[in-house]
């Protein structure tokens, strides 16, 4: 028996009946021969980690646009935190950790430069035609590997799509990632807001702190423990009502104090304007798109090609392209 087959056998024996087994995947868009060492979901995790879109996450904003300091979260560190929380939950519930990890690492691959400001800017331009979860699926299906995509398993692709938005997750592993995403960003955004001096732990309403805890680690510990306890061996990933309500109130508090705070969001209008101007420019000058996006133009149309190019940019790259196109270059006459 090869190593992969042994791992698949162990999944069948050790994982919960509710767990998604790698040997029972609904398959890939293009069938492939199984790997000797790695299960299907392990292969998907590796493909995501080695792709270009994953590397670009390190230079994409989470909440604070181009902050001064090395300790604020980026889209990359957010993704890693989601993965760690999700794997702890999956392990505790005897779900498939490899599937959970693959979804976690891929869930934000389609996120724009400048965080949600970039997403809102593209949505303003395209109407309902842009959501980062849908773009993340497009990245792994149609943009990576020069348009070939990563050919991921159905369960990973579905989990990436349903990590946010109205569609419900199809597996418990995907539901775990959806919860873990919110647990991670609410709490690390509190930590970053405290670092920025616009919030302190003492500002969190007392009745919320009484339920969830007073520190970053206490809150995450409470939320993870409660989710594991409330879910148990059941068919639905959930929290007890008191804890779920407290997390929802904390989320609303963060919108009021941080996500709409002028210190955290004061530069968003500039970021949106950069996105808008770049979109107009490349729509009027498609010949300036990189070669791979010209192929997308031929296949999916100009608007989609420009959207894909801009959505894939990092913050610094978007600013650099704007500067190259619209800011005059200094020059001097040599003596």
SSE topology sketch:
Elements: H1 3-14, H2 40-49, H3 52-56, H4 75-92, H5 97-106, H6 115-126, H7 132-143, H8 154-161, H9 172-196, H10 206-212, H11 216-231, H12 241-259, H13 262-265, H14 268-284, H15 291-300, H16 302-311, H17 315-326
Task: Please tally the β strands and state the result.
Answer: 0
One letter per element, helices H and strands E, the order comes to HHHHHHHHHHHHHHHHH
The largest sheet is: none
Helix content class: 55-70%
Looking at CATH, the homologous superfamily of the domain at 41-268 is Hypothetical protein af1432
Portion of residues in beta strands equals: under 5%
Distance between the termini: 76 Å
Mean pLDDT: 93
Query: What are the low-pLDDT stretches, counting only 5+ consecutive residues below 50?
Result: none
Please compute the radius of gyration using only Cα atoms.
21 Å
Query: Which CATH top level class of the domain at 41-268 fits?
Result: Mainly Alpha
Looking at the structure, the CATH topology of the domain at 41-268 is Hypothetical protein af1432
Which CATH architecture of the domain at 41-268? Orthogonal Bundle
Give an account of the 3D structure.
The chain is mainly alpha-helical. The chain has a domain of 228 residues: Hypothetical protein af1432. Helix content is 62%, strand content 0%. The protein has 17 helices and no strands. Helix 8 packs across helix 9, helix 10 crosses helix 12 and helix 14 crosses helix 17. The radius of gyration is 21 Å and the shape is flat. 43% of the residues are buried. The mean pLDDT is 93.
